[in-house]
């Protein structure tokens, strides 16, 4: 087997595992654990899609949640039944109110829409870098939020958008997670992926060797946004009801924490971050509700889990700024070298 | 409707709002000038100032001493933040420092929720400041808080101007802002200058927090968020890192917001914030140095 094929082999093994878990888990675990597994998968899709621009391309976007929100709302609007549309969104334009899409087409539509939106938004913004691009994408997030609140014909405004069918199940999430992983792994460990990392590590050198910086960034940004839209749709069909504030700074902070803690330069890092932060938040949440040891009663401490998470984040920034995984990947012994930028240069198809 | 009185009323509102934005933006600019750090926690330092004032006022301290303590409390919070979170990563890449300041925001906000719950509570104003004034037979109204905001902004800015142009420490701060390595080479104690910059900036945040809460009438843990974002836009429009730029940007933004609401059709008004942030993006793209600085080329 040729060396470059090994990453897909790892992914295929993971896929098989995912399928077993997806269909097996509900039989051996309680509902609570299945739900946590589902949330992990969902967050993994979102964090992986974020890692493409923020981790691999060096365009540190704070606007990713804008795409997730746009995807969630679009998919929600498309999959309401005609009767629901008439009662919940009476002012919906005629072109949208006579049909209702099933889950999969609605999700794909959401992804395509956010991908295109990213092309339009990214075309000017990808000229910026470093701190400027973070600020500008944050502006984008705020604009999306304002539009979601005010375009009440489509979104019910600041009120809860409700009635989205609850179709997101573990097999759906893990299936989409597998698709995301395969696409990103193929992309990142390809010549184009190396171009992205070159852009991240030294923009001027990258453009000097003939890489079209703007184009590379735009492609990465749009593919990331596509999966953000898909993840948004899954999220919408998981929650059933949501409002613009669901897709705002709190979610941004959460996703970035997962990405940065795990390590921005590796796909495994994103997964490690998601699993770690999810488990930690669940543990802290039970502490937060208050508990008692013998006669000692600890009262409910709302917000405590976020404070611990924030301090952990600062400690990581100080002592391990590249995150837990850094740029390494789990390869399960399938490659001798860690996959990125070693040896394989010049041998790829 | 658009009579002279109406326009004058809007100008008063614009100056009042602009003063608040300018106060917050000046603090952001001081820190950015010295450290090249976007201090997202600045908004939460505002919250610290406002809550300190409310709590001390509730304990029986009169309003003015409580306000002074609030400002001092905010300054102390800024000092702690610099020592604990920012100093260890001072030479780290931009994005690392941006993320750290987001984490500090996260911690402070949740600390506020933990201590005071997330529901808003009343901001107690002494009777002296509760009044409103009317001119031209009621066509023009302004509150005592409007006047207090504008007056305190002016006084504190004159003080700041004196501080950074006439005192040794202020001159040192400007030197550090110009080139920190060079400042260190000529024997300036950079750590001390950074601490002073944080103390001054956070005191500004505290003052702005109290005035903001006084205008809104309520305090809550998330109160710093909106002013922070607006001041951020103001600072970038004016030229990030420049104090004069923060002033110009603050007043421009205040005027823009008030005039959108006052003179634009009702269908546009709700999109005010979208317009403001579109302006931010436009400035970043076409004039990242802001109004007061030459258009420095950005590294692509």
From TrEMBL, chain A:
Transmembrane parts of this sequence: 32-52, 59-82, 102-123, 130-149, 169-189, 218-239, 299-319
Keyword Transport: no
Principal subcellular localisation of the protein: membrane
Compartments it resides in: Cell membrane
Statement: the UniProt record of this protein carries the keyword Transmembrane: yes
Keyword vocabulary terms for this entry: Cell membrane, Membrane, Transmembrane, Transmembrane helix
Domain of life: Bacteria
Cited InterPro entries: ABC_transp_permease (IPR001851), LivM-like (IPR043428)
Membrane topology: Multi-pass membrane protein
PANTHER family: HIGH-AFFINITY BRANCHED-CHAIN AMINO ACID TRANSPORT PROTEIN BRAE, HIGH-AFFINITY BRANCHED-CHAIN AMINO ACID TRANSPORT SYSTEM PERMEASE
Descriptive protein name: Branched-chain amino acid transport system permease protein
Automatic annotation (TrEMBL), chain B:
InterPro entries reported for this sequence: ABC_transp_permease, BCAA_transport_permease
Membrane topology: Multi-pass membrane protein
Major site of localization recorded for this protein: membrane
Subcellular location(s) of the protein: Cell membrane
CDD domains: TM_PBP1_LivH_like
Keywords: Amino-acid transport, Cell inner membrane, Cell membrane, Membrane, Transmembrane, Transmembrane helix, Transport
Listed transmembrane segments: 12-35, 55-77, 98-119, 139-164, 193-214, 234-262, 274-292
Similarity comment: Belongs to the binding-protein-dependent transport system permease family. LivHM subfamily.
Protein name: Branched-chain amino acid transport system permease protein
